[in-house]
Design a protein that fits this description.
The chain has 14 helices and eleven strands. By secondary structure, the chain is an alpha/beta fold. The structure holds S-adenosylmethionine (SAM). The site of S-adenosylmethionine has 18 residues, from strand 2, strand 3 and strand 5.
């Protein structure tokens, strides 16, 4: 992240009346090498996203377009983002230009791509539990020892509190979190627990993994207690649990993914309204897309939502919507961020 870049971008956002998107979620591949029981991905080869040289150049061009448009943050996601052999180079390019970069990863390949990983403003490694058997059951792979070894390796090149452990939480692993929080405290890491929710993709829905009623209360209370015990290390939005209880996105708390979080697919195409449902897609330049009539029409509809949005509780759209829907939540997240830096 470069402060001169942030200042220039801020000027663009002010000039646009804060109409511009501020973040891109780039799914570098839809394939994954873990098989998490609650996740929609995890079938290697199911999504056949071919890598070509032309595609690599197209992504570099896209990153330039993001910088020109004043996008603040670029998140590399997936599938498993490091299964795309170019991801490390994309991170370096975005960092050179000054964008704030982050990447959730299962950690299986972070040692192999340690140079790229070292450039990330925020590295997020997904570890639900330090119990090897429970980890294997949940994540569909007995990979914990390798991931922990890889993590210790890359941490030598990362500053305190710039590495986050993502834990998808339900009642099965709630009691494992204190051990994980202590692990984070000893290494100056952030623990970001997120309640397991259902994930939909283009109409395809997994079996119901959602928390209901008293289960949500137990998870929320457990996390609040954990944050009290580890105030520097545990970070989550308490409001998320109210949102979850209220059934996720709805007219009172609309999803801002279409206007604020750009979805980019492995081939560089931009998808609207979100990463999980496509009504419009384009390979045109980024600014041109957001000035086009089809995109404007979709964005105008975000206030009223689509039927497929109802009940969605996915974390990244929630976060961008929290900033946008509520100044109080924007301030809370800002304070949260500052407290741990
Ligand atoms: C979809 S993964 C993509 C990146 C990478 N493969 C990883 O494991 O981090 C991003 C994050 O979403 C979390 N996740 C996936 N499905 C989830 C669900 N149903 N509920 C809550 N979190 C989930 C994962 O644990 C991971 O931290």
């Amino acid at each position: 992240m470069k402060y001169s870049y942030i200042a220039k971008s801020l000027a663009k956002h002010v000039a646009s009346g804060f109409k511009l998107p501020y973040m891109v979620m780039f799914e570098t591949t839809l394939m994954c090498n873990e098989y998490c029981e609650y996740c929609i991905f995890g079938e290697e080869g199911k999504f056949n996203d071919l890598k070509t040289r032309a595609e690599r150049e197209r992504i570099f061009k896209r990153i330039r377009e993001m910088a020109e448009m004043g996008i603040f943050a670029l998140s590399f996601s997936g599938g498993e983002p490091l299964l795309n052999p170019n991801t490390s180079d994309y991170i370096a390019r975005a960092a050179d230009l000054g964008l704030w970069t982050s990447m959730p990863t299962n950690g299986l390949l972070i040692k192999k791509y340690a140079d790229g990983v070292a450039r990330l403003d925020m590295l997020e490694v997904s570890i639900d539990s330090l119990n090897r058997q429970r980890f294997a059951k949940r994540r569909g792979l007995d990979g914990l020892p390798t991931i922990l070894e890889n993590l210790e390796f890359v941490l030598k090149r990362r500053r305190p509190f710039t590495t986050q452990i993502n834990a998808a939480v339900n009642l099965e692993n709630l009691d494992d979190l204190p051990e994980l929080a202590e692990f984070c405290r000893q290494r100056n890491l952030v623990l970001h627990p997120e309640a397991v929710h259902n994930v939909m993709r283009a109409g395809e829905l997994l079996p119901d993994f959602e928390l209901h009623g008293a289960q949500i209360d137990r998870v929320e209370l457990g996390l609040r207690n954990l944050r009290t015990a580890y105030p520097k290390n545990v970070r989550f939005y308490t409001h998320y649990y109210e949102f979850y209880r209220n059934g996720g996105f709805g007219p009172k708390f609309p999803c801002r993914h279409p206007s604020k979080l750009v979805s980019m697919k492995p081939d560089g195409s931009i998808h609207l309204p979100c990463a999980f449902m496509t009504l419009f897609q384009s390979q045109a330049p980024l600014e041109e897309i957001f000035e086009s009539e089809p995109a404007k029409k979709i964005i105008a509809q975000e206030e009223t939502l689509w039927d497929f949005c109802k009940g969605c509780k996915i974390g990244c759209p929630y976060e961008v919507s929290a900033f946008t829907n509520s100044p109080a939540l924007a301030i809370e997240s800002g304070l949260n961020f500052l407290r741990i830096i």
